[in-house]
Amino acid sequence: MTIKISAEIPYGNACDISIEEKSDTAVVYFAASPSDGPQCLWFCFRIEIRGKIRCIKLVLKHPYNMLMGGCDLSNILPVIKKDNSQWRRIGKTYQFHTLPDGRYEVSWLLDNPGKVNDIALCYPYGTPEIENLLKDCRGYWKKETVGVSTENRQIIRLCNDYSTAGSKKPGVYIVARQHSGETPGSWVLDGLLRYLAGMKTQDVVVWAIPLSNIDGIEKGRYGKDYFPVDLNRSWGNKMCRHENLVIQRDIARWRERCTPILGLDFHAPGGAEGEGVYFPFRAKGKLTRIKKEEIYWINLIGKSVGGEYMYLNYRKNSPVCGDLKNLTGLMFTGYFDFVLRIPGLCLEIPYGIINGKVMEIADYREIGKRIADAILKGI
């Protein structure tokens, strides 16, 4: 066989793989593995070519079982890394295939593949990117290990200022990748941190956990609604994940060393959503509340990010999660709002396309820069 497929690469995820070869073309069928969780979306795998292949058709199986967000599936636009090149988007060659029994598949064409081709849902982001960030920022960000994960991996926190107990400096605490496959959140945080480093600001105390679900990241899991509960459903009195305990105790240290003004949580939505960055909020239920301070930050950040990237009116409805009475099942935002009494906001950043614009790494970083600018203006 001319082609070899492997998910044994960093952040690897693929299953139900088959290959059809014909002359100098090939069809590669694959699916996203749920990896012991109820939801699947993230995929990342390698195609190695030993002979002469002119074109590969990538066929994603079972997209109807993936968390797509009920939107246009053509908004899914995977990325590719050929040989030693940089990651880039696959061309807009999307096709939709209906099968005889009503199931369907989606596909893309990969012309002139390299000898080694890594394919992923979106631009991967992990510990090497953190090290690149630290190097480029020349000491502005301090890296510390604040604890370990369930599987004993280091949980890293970055901060620009240790500050001192009782400090009056405004403080912002940020997390990303509670759902391990949601890499757009990491790239936005990367842009935010780079911008603050470039400004060399000392006016705000910023602490950030860039790779919250480090186990899921390293193992190529999507990480949403994971058993017994995902990180973003374990912020209340009944914590089911050690990572939440680690981060909560770090938040307590941060609160002692600043005047807390805001918590931010970077996510990505359904895989096919493409209407823009938005703040999910609860329209009904016991946790219904958008405080005055939250509205202030939503409008400030939304205006700064702008219509090029932002969803109309900045907000979308989301399901209620958590029980205020018993403080169980709380999300990060609920923990900040109802336990710490500090505005806590979640941002959802689409994977592939925003308002028809193909999202590149530079776009994600630009969104992060604009969020950072809003923070500096708002303090």
Descriptive terms for the model:
Immunoglobulin-like; six-stranded mixed sheet; five-stranded antiparallel sheet; 20 strands
Quick check: average pLDDT? 94
Question: SSE order in H/E notation?
Answer: EEEEEEEEEEHEEEHEHHEEHEHEEEH
Please give the domain count. Answer: 2
Count of alpha and pi helical runs: 7
CATH class value of the largest domain: Alpha Beta
What portion of residues is helical?
10-25%
β-strand percent reads: 25-35%
Count of extended strands: 20
What class do helices, strands and sheet pairing give?
Answer: alpha/beta
Distance between the termini: 60 Å
At the fold tier of CATH, the topology name of the largest domain is: Aminopeptidase
Query: What is the strand arrangement across the widest sheet?
Result: 11-12-14-13-15-18
Q: Could you tell me the radius of gyration in angstroms? A: 21 Å
Largest sheet: 6 strands, mixed
- Unreliable spans: none
Q: What is the global morphology? A: globular
CATH superfamily of the largest domain: Zn peptidases
- CATH-defined architecture of the largest domain: 3-Layer(aba) Sandwich
